[in-house]
Here is the input.
Amino acid sequence: MKKNLTPAAVVLVAAFAFVAFTASVKPPFVSSGPAYAQDDWKKEFDDVCAGTQDAMLFDPEKLKELVARCDALEPRIEKLDGSQRKVMLKRLRMCRDLYRYVLQSKEGN
Amino acid sequence: MKRAFLIVIAILTVASVTIAQTGMKKKRPLPFEYGRVVLNANSEKAGLAPVVFDHWLHRARFTCRLCHVDLAFAMKAGATGITASDNSSGYYCGACHNGERLFNGRKIFASCAKKSTPEDLKRCGRCHAQGRSAKRDSEFAAFTEGFPKERFGNGINWEKAEADGQLALADFLDGVSIKRKPLTVPKDMTVEPKVAEMPEIIFSHKKHSAWAGCELCHPEIFVGVKKGATKYSMTEIFDGRYCGACHGSVAFPLLDCQRCHTKSI
Here is the structure.
């Protein structure tokens, strides 16, 4: 039986087996993808907005960097669902607006 | 006939001029009513009474910043548009009122539920209380007994109560707030009044930022970045803008002139 298999058939069987295996086995990084992504934005939010208390002490370069990080975070938060999106967008905007406000005040001076 | 007609015209003229000058006279709220907010963005649509939120109970336990920044409550009543789904997902009121979080060793009652049993409906009535909040007066009196008194608003000097250690305001909510370093307080500043002979205002950043943080006032309420750049009048403040966003609705009211205009002439 084995002797009757052509090389093309062997390749086909091998390819089928490979596809079936990869489809059935999900490596950890795939299954934990969304959770990782969620933690990722929250960690970035916490990191960027933890500085609002010290905003007056930051130099303009640091403030520009923080504003840019807030801007980059916004589309990721826009993708969240319902209540979480509503709350986190407001929090992010308050944080970014404060940095912009302090930046303007420093540049004005 | 002509005389009677003239009298009626005269009365109507005087009445309309009086109303135009003074507007509708507002009833001054009683101490336990001061700071009350009625929220009805979605309540009546859902067949429930509007929510009656009394600031006095919450402001005695939490900073303004915690609720209006970390929990994202808007500064205008109804502007947040809170839904039952928001609360039951753990946002807004539901961040604390989830039936699990403890305060002084007691579980905080849960806000909106996805399914309501007759027992739940009783609980709904604790917040959806417009028209049946008769007990609030006595609850307020018992709660504030021993607090330093003031002339206006709630009749309580909240600032002194905190300074005297009668209140300890929480500014961090586990799972919600960001861990931060202590606040770097900007300097106090004076604000020059427009009216001659009126004492200058000494604005304390320390007092305000301890409760409100930075982003609650800047830039949403105070936009100008340079001192003196934003010109505002008492008329605008009485309309609820600038200082009037809090003073006049929750913080001590604008009738208490000497608490802001403090600099000696």
Remarks:
- Chain B has a mean pLDDT of 88.
- Residues 2-22 of chain B form the longest helix (21 residues).
- Chain B touches chain A through 29 residues (CB under 8 Å).
- Residues 13 and 125 of chain B are 47 Å apart (CA to CA).
